[in-house]
Amino acid sequence: MDYKEIDALIRLLDDSDEEVYGHIRDRLLNFGKGAIPFLENAWGGSLDAMLQSRIEELIHDIQFDNLKRELRVWTETGGMDLLKGAILVARYQYPDLQEETIRHQLESIRRDAWLEMNDELTALEQVNVLNKIFFDIHGFSGNTQHYHAPQNSFVNIALETHKGNPLMLSILYMEVANAAGVPIYGVNLPEHFVLCYRENADLSEGITSKVLFYINPFSKGDIFNQKEIDQFLKQLNLPPDPSYYVPCSNIAMLQRLIRNLMNSYQKLGFMDKVAELEQLMRATVVR
Question: How far is CA 6 from CA 62, 64, 165, 222, in A?
């Protein structure tokens, strides 16, 4: 990387000629993340409001382009690590978020659940243990007061406040359950994301026969059955599509997480963020 060229380009960022600025901007964008420390130093050493604004925009664009690339890689490699995907989405708002920090915060909860599990427990007993660890000991709960707030969709905020929306609580609950060897998966139910306990982990079967019961993390792990999903869909005037009863993929969960954010920002009138999140959504489409 040509550090001297980066430094020289940054010195020209205050050029009043928009065409010249556009060329400089494109060159700096091509340097990617490596240019960010130089841009941050220049921002701190300047009192020029226009220059600072241009630097802020450049840093955001570099970080956003990098985020799109990482999401594409995550998707193209099968989206196997759900927590990694949630961390990437959180980096839209918190670009400096460290993956190690999130994993460390979650590790203590995972460890508590793993220590309580044993092979003699029934499926219901396993879930009761998870509920005790997740909701009673670590204090997670649904954010009913600010249900539509964007913060509910960011994994770092959920771990700090121990509050979230149904999907974010489901993601964290799943991570804890799977680490403890409990076969719990996400179910893409309309209007309200839930989980299921499924004996067979082969998601390609597309049947509900292996689903023993469902779990609602937003109501502190309440357990319910298929008939209650039937009733819920009737209330929504929706047909009982088979996909509403069986586990969905991690990629589907991440796409829903992005849609939740889009809806939150739309309600707040931040249409620029909605447009950017649409780009992130496209990065998660399997080609």
Answer: 14, 19, 42, 56
Confidence of residue 207 (pLDDT cuts 50, 70, 90): very low
Specify burial of residue 134 (Cβ count, 10 A radius: 0-12, 13-18, 19+). buried
Q: What's the total number of domains in the chain?
A: 2
Q: In sequence order, what E strands does the chain have? A: 141-142, 163-164, 184-187, 194-198, 211-216, 222-224
- Chain-centroid distance, C-alpha 148: 15
Choosing from 76, 104, 133, the residue where a domain stops is 76
Closest to 128 measured CA to CA, from 200, 180, 187: 180
Name the domain boundary from 58, 76, 94.
76
- What's the token pair of residue 4? 């001297």
Band the pLDDT of 40: cuts 50, 70, 90.
confident
Residue range 85-93: average pLDDT? 98
Confidence of residue 27 (pLDDT cuts 50, 70, 90): confident
Its pTM stands at 0.89
Residue 224, phi then psi, degrees to nearest 5: -145, 175
Q: Are 276 and 64 in contact (CB under 8 A)?
A: yes
- In this predicted model, what pLDDT tens digit does every residue of 250-280 receive, in sequence order? 999 999 999 999 999 999 999 999 999 999 9
Query: What residues form DSSP beta bridges with 194?
Result: 187
- Can you give the residue range of the structural domain that contains 20? 3-76
Tally: H helices and E strands in the chain = 12, 6
What does the pLDDT read at residue 200? 60
